[in-house]
Amino acid sequence: MSSSLATTPTAASLDAFLARQEQIGLLRFLTCGSVDDGKSTLIGRLLYDTKLIFDDHLAALKRDSARHGTAGEHIDFALLVDGLEAEREQGITIDVAYRFFTTDKRRFIVADTPGHEQYTRNMATGASNAELAVVLVDARQGVLTQTRRHSFIAALLGIRHVVLAVNKIDLVAFSQARFDEIRDEYARAVAGLGFRSLTAIPISARFGDNVIARSANTPWYAGPSLLEHLETVDVEGEASVHPFRMAVQWVNRPNLDFRGYAGTVAAGTVRPGDRVTVAASGRSSTVARIVTMDGDLDRAGAGSAVTLTLAEQIDISRGDVLAAPGAPVPVADKFEAHLVWLSEHALFPGRNYVFKVGTRSTSGSITRIRHRIDVNTYEQVAADRLGINDVAVVGVSLSAPMAMERFADNRELGGFIVIDRLTNATVGVGMVDAVTPGSTNVVWHDMAIDKEARAELKGQRPAALWFTGLSGAGKSTIANLVDRRLHAMGRHTYILDGDNVRHGLNRDLGFSEADRVENIRRAAEAARLMVDAGLIVIVSFISPYRSDRDAARERFEAGEFMEVFIDTPVDECRRRDPKGLYARADAGQIRNFTGVSAPYEAPLAPELRLATTEAEAEVLADRVIEELRHRGMIA
Predict the structure, then answer these.
(1) Which of 1, 235, 242, 404 could form a disulfide with 267 if both were Cys (CB 3.0 to 4.6 A apart)?
(2) What is the pTM of this model?
(3) Residue 543 catalytic?
């Protein structure tokens, strides 16, 4: 290893070294900014100049620099961090790379994040646990859109300390005027973001100017080097002064005699003998022990990973939040939040996702987009959808109440991620701004005559038959035949037809993707009320998106929803064209027409598939009746 510590250590010196390491603090920071601003090069330079590169790694770096490097005959320090072959070939950072290094004054975990706009989601990942952001700006380019975007996301994610590293200062002849110009422009750009400290440093990551030590090339700069600032900046959070909170990660039951609740203390402190309350149930108990792998503790503060045992056993499971009794955690199913959308697939209000807050997950939806934020001007812009990297203020409604706090008060219980239900991919990250007061006070009112009583009177099981397929597939034809057969059998039914509903309930909706999502949401809610009335409701809607049909299914109890796919190829639908819509769509007279200029996502596993090119409509209607009998929905 290229270090003065390269001599063989004794056991005593190693123990002493480890003991010193336990006493010094840890700083988590990230590097961010626009592409080619030198983020990876800076981290590589830090590792090199602090002599934390093994000799064999250094030799490999020199070889790789000759093969992939962009620094001429010099070492390309970016290659220390850019480990993916695609990163080396393109000379860019794609994924978040974490590196650990230490000095005599502090330990560091640094996240090198991508600069390209398409990888902004990875930057948000790196910022989620950081306490300080090093924002790099190319001295030749100045403050760019991505510089503003990364700074804004860093502020949203709770970072309050920023270093503006004006890199490549050597390429502008170490100009103080240029440095001052960029510093002042950046200060104006982030003036409203709430950073507690902003330190500007002129650097050359390639040659090391002002990285480890102050450079003679910038005699006009009197501030600290980057490392000096990182070693001394005070980023101690205020989590320890807040009331105690801990989300339960795991119920620890190694044997019959031990029951503990494992998690990381999110805020405050806890001691044996303290009373703690379960946020959701309000039940309390006394902490008996604070257990760790290294023995019991007499105190645990924010950031401590511990297992708590309680004197009185109460019902606690994964996802529950333990809190100080005098400062309860709000429990609600509605809240306002800032949201960063990370998916290439647009967000539309009303579409169902999974929301994870702390260690608990539940389904829910964005009910409205209050406004999108222009990252260049920070102005509020009206929007009915969000695209990749958009930042907005939104309203959220959950299917079940969850314990949460404002992100400004608690990063652990105020931050959340949004997960796509089909792909399980993280598509958004959000920060709770306000928990809606009384949101759990609106509850479903149980009627004296319930669904079962109404259905029994009618001699049937209520159900929703969801007919989906392209325009002209035959949905309405088959739905009418099924309705006539059920009516002749004395069953109580109703048809919700897509065209008919648009004459009244949904007459205010168009055919954009956002309106289509809302169209299906309203239809599902109407169908659910009809099922609650004991009816067999036949819903005949194109409903082109799987996620919307899945969201509709979730509104019903198990066994009440039956997806019927009217499977007709688009060419056959175009040939039939009973309303002349395909001809008009092909002529460009109708926009966003499903099957022509808008997509249709066929069901993957419908309860019933009816191929209209293989049988007549009357035969297919009989198959629906047979399926209803088979499922016990009719006698």
Answers:
(1) 242
(2) 0.71
(3) yes
